Amino acid sequence: MSKPHNHHLNGTTRNNPQAHEEQHRTWSRRQFLWSAGLTAIGSGLTLGGSSVQAMPHSPLLSALQQADNERILVIINLSGGNDGLNTIIPRGNDIYYAARPTLAIPEYNLFAMNDDFGMPNTMLPLQAMWNEGKMAVVHNVAYPNQNLSHFRSSDIWATASDEDVMLRTGWIGRFLENNYPAYTLAPPENPIGLQIGVQSNILFDGQDTNYGLSITNPAQFYQIALTGQLHSTENLPDCSYGEEVLFMRQMVNSTVRYASSIQRAFTESSNQVGYTNDNLSQELSIVARLIKGNLGTKVYLVTAYGYDTHASQAGDHAYLMTELANAVNAFYNDLAASNHSQNVLMMTISEFGRRVEENGSQGTDHGASAPMLFFGDLVNGGFYGTPSDIVNLDEYGNVRFTTDFREVYLTVLRNWFCLDLQLSQAIIGKPFDPIDNLLPNCDNQIGANALNVLLGHNPSPSNSNIMEIKYAIRSSGIVKLQIQDLLGNTKATLVNAVQEPNSYTISFNPYQHGLQPGHFIYRLDTGGKTYSRRMRFW
C-alpha cells in the first residue's frame, strides 16, 4: 500500500459527548395572545413573592411542542476521506480515465446528472432526488494548506479553523452556545445535539461545556431509545455478584442524560420504510424516529466508516456508495411519508478527498478537495462552485480547491438556521458570504424575542402599580425570570422553579422589591435559552 505524503503534522482529537438543540415556530405577538387566551383565569400560585397564573393549554402550546422539528441539520460524516472523483464523475474526461486505469467508472456504469457529470450506478437510489431537484453538489471543497492527517483534518472540519490554528470549540458548539446561553443555568429538557459513532469529535464543544450526547453505535442507541437505559437491570443473578452488576449498571444508566426523552420520542414514532442492515442506515433509521417523535434535537451527526481506500478501492468504494445512497434514500422517504422532510437538511462531510491518480495497490491516497452533497425538500438542486481541475495540480499532486468548506458552513448557519450574517461570520471566524441559491433565503432572523416565548408586559387593569409579565414555555424544566437594570445587574428574581409546559402571567409590583421608577430589563431563562425585553414603569 502506498503512503500519503507526510509533510503535515498529525493532529489530535478530544473525546466529546454530543447532543441536541431546539427551535420554536415564529408567531406574532397578536397570534400568541389570541391563541393562548392570556386574559383567561388560570390556577394561581406564588413564586418569589409574585403572583403567577398558569393558563389552560392552548393550540399554541401544542404548536410550540411540534415546532421542535423545524430546521434540523443531519451531518453525514464519510470518515476516512471520500474519493470525490468516483462520487461525482467527470464524464468523458480523458485525463480522469488515463489516471485511473482500474478505478475509473465507465460511462455504461453511471447515470448522467448533466452533460459533464454523472454518478455511479451504485448510487441509483439517489437518481430520483437529483432529478426532482432535492439534491445539490458543491464542487471542489477544501481549505488552504490541506493537512493530510486524518485526525488533524477532522479537527479542522469540526472546528472550522485554519490549518495552523488549534481551536478547542466546534462550529456547531459555538452555534449552540450562542442560541442556548442559559444551557447550564436552565438546561433544555431534550438533547440539542446528538452524535452516533465511536470516533471522537469536537464538533459540539463550546467554550465551557459540550452541547450534546455521544452514543457509540446503533445498537447502543437502540437500547437507550427502546428502554430508556443503556444496560438492562432485569434478570440478574440473586447473589452478591448480581447486586454488584446491578449497582454498576444503575450507575452507568444514571449518567445517560436525556435517556427518557429519547425513549419517549422513539416509542411515539415508527419507521414507515425499510432500511438496510448496515450501520449508517440503522443510525439514520433511529434519527428518523426521533425527528418524527418530536425530540427537538437540532443537529445530528452520524458517521459512515471505511472511506480510507488506499487499496482495492473498486469494490470497497462501490459498497460505500451503495450504503450511502440506500441510507439517504430510505431516510428521506421515511421523513417524507410523515411530512417531516421539509424541515430536514442532510449534508455530507469528509476530512479530505483522494489523489487524482490511482496508486500501485489499486487504491487512492490522501488528497485535498472533494464535493459536498446536500439533500432535502428545501435544497435548490444542482451544481454549485467550480469543478475540480484535474490537470493543473499542486506540487503534491492534489487538486486545487475552489470553495472553502467554511463558506458552506456559513451558508447553513445563515440560510438554514436563519442567523444574522454578522453572527454567522463570527461563529465561522471568516467574513465569507453565503453561497447563492443553495438554500432558501431566510425571511426572518432568529433573535432574542423572535420566537415569542417572552410575550410582553402591560399594566394590570386592576392596579396601575402592578406590571403583568407574560411568557410561555414548551417543555418542563427550570424557569428563571429576573428583573435587571440596564447594566445587567439583577434587582429581583420573580420565578426560580420547575414549571410545566404552559402559558404564564406573573404580577410584578416593583415597589415591593424596592425599585424606583425607571427603565429595566426582564429576562427569562428556560430550555437553555435566554429571552429579554425592556420595560419602563412610573
Please provide a written account of the structure.
With 538 residues, the chain is α+β, with helices and mostly antiparallel strands. It folds into two domains: 24-65 and 453-537, Sandwich (Immunoglobulin-like), CATH 2.60.40; 70-428, Alkaline Phosphatase, subunit A, CATH 3.40.720. Helices cover 26% and strands 24% of the residues. The strands form five sheets. Strands 4, 8, 11, 12, 13, 14 and 15 form a seven-stranded mixed β-sheet that branches. The protein has a five-stranded antiparallel β-sheet with strand order 2-3-20-17-16, covered by helices on one side. β21 (518-526) and β22 form a beta hairpin. Mean pLDDT is 82; it is low at 1-69 and 445-452.
Helix percentage range = 25-40%
Mean pLDDT comes to 82
How much of the sequence lies in strands comes to 15-25%
How many structural domains are formed by the residues? 2
Structural class: alpha+beta
